[in-house]
Amino acid sequence: MLIKYKKYTMSRNSASALLLAVFVATSSYAGQQNVEALYQNARDHYYDLFSSPEKMKQRSQWLFVINKFSNIVKTRPHAKRAIDAQYTTGLLYKNLYYRSGKRSDKSNAISSFSKIISRFPKSSLVDDARRHIGDIRFRDSEYARAAKAYKSVSKHKNDSRKIRRASSGSRTKRGAKSFAELTQVRRFSHPGYTRIILHLSKRTAFRTDHLSNPNRVFVDLLGTRPSKNVSKTTKYSSGMVRSVRMGQNSSNVTRVVFDLASNPYHSVTSLMNPFRIVIDFGRQKSPSTASKPKQKRRASRGYQSVNFATGKSIRTIVIDPGHGGKDPGAVGPTGLKEKTVTLAISKKLKKILKNRCGCKVILTRNSDRFVELDDRTVLANSYNADLFISIHVNSNRNRRARGIETYFLSPARSKDELATAARENMLAMKSSNPETNDLAYIMNDMASTQKVNDSYLLATNIQRSMIKGLRRSYHGVKDKGVKQAMFYVLWRATMPSVLVETSFISNRSEERKLKSPAFQRKLAESIATGIGYYSKTYTTAMR
Q: How much is the pTM?
């Protein structure tokens, strides 16, 4: 019997084979979709955990999220997401061990990372897994085993280099130094908050602890020696850290000691490209005794004013005009610089906010001067600000790209989000690889998601308000929506924070608008209105 359909004719066996092939392909695709759905669901719970300090205190919450990822590994061991789930399981157990001190958590963390090495030997995550094992060993003073884990990373890389060099006919140098070098110590400080960054020549394991009488924090660096141009002792007349001292704790461990002015809280993390360790010191937070801000009800001409919520919701706002000084930011077709536009909008926004809410409004720069990205969030943290708003303009190689978008701090989901974050992060990261930048942020500082929900709500209110306000006076305003990416300038801000991409300076039409004081003022009014809506729908958590 033949099956006929239009011009096509085939036998029953052929038709059955075709249907079977279609079924298998469809089932495979559906299976992939199912695994992806499971992984995204697990990731949602992951972010829920790290955005809730209360959940992070409960061991059951950690194990619940761990089971979400480990279930993917158990039931879908050959799926593409299995290695991601295995790696995240290791990260969760590692962080849980650092909190609980339970040996079982340590064992599970090492086991999870070891499985990546054995089951996925060709994966790019293998070296990261080895480093995490080294971190855990070093934290427990298992120096020899930690060094072995790190040497396995170096050996793996050196073997790859030898193969490449051999194929090109070049020779490898013998006796190369295996020590990392502490090349620079940088300090950013404002009253009540200090950040110190240790720059190293390559990644290495480290551990930190706090000691009393006198108060001090130390960081031990495995296989590291300070550079000749790094002072062994540096003293400061102000700030949370009064001196930094270097010492050799053993033959291959350098100890960096921070002598503290009082008893601040501190947090430590590491970043890549180049490898550096960031230590933040801030005042111990206590319930605020600030009085209610005086309310001013002054409507901007031709625009509806939104009264801010009373009480202890919004007391201090830090506005950050992007770029400045030697860093012009993006440049438009006719030469308009991003740094000029962002300062103009920020000054107008400050004036409007002071009139509407009566709260303290601070600019990270008041003139055309260069401000380090680290210094911007350190300033905001030193004021214990309630909101941090970074003002920027967008740019794209496609000159027709246009629109307005608002970002909050969270892992990027699309290539456009990665590209935008990479462009804004370039100066701080010294790397044009957005995927590496993004991975470094999220994997090394998961606690940065604690303000994600607050920031998302702030971004949503600002974005909606900008689109609504600008469309009243201008045609063709494109809403590019609320997006997420890992922006360095928002990283480690202790308050809800967003980055506003006000328009595309690379688009001639939008560049022309950005030059206009009227357009700048309307943007500022709309952002202020969005902040007002936010303050009415959400009360900032007490610190």
A: 0.67
